[in-house]
Amino acid sequence: MVDAVGEAERQVRENALPKARDSARERVPEKEEAALLGALAGLVESIGELAGAVGGRVTNRGTARTYTGAGRRLRSEAGNLRGDEDETAARSR
């Protein structure tokens, strides 16, 4: 699990972040702005699901609560991003 999450982080850092930070690149097309928020929501949602699932598999009860709470917070934030995606999509119509 650690390797898979580390690989996802590496992919974002090596592929997406440099493109986002490159001021010489063109702006994100308006029709893709909502899609990018949706992709971010999906990523956060997946990590939240992973954290929640791990909570039931760790030995220490305190750690289990930590993972379960983190999963809940991450899934909540993913929901916020989904709302932002909807608002952005409505603005671009």
UniProtKB/TrEMBL annotation:
Residues 1-29, 67-93 are annotated as: Disordered. Residues 19-29 have a biased composition (Basic and acidic residues). It comes from the Bacteria. This is Uncharacterized protein. It comes from Kitasatospora xanthocidica. The lineage of its organism: Bacteria, Bacillati, Actinomycetota, Actinomycetes, Kitasatosporales.
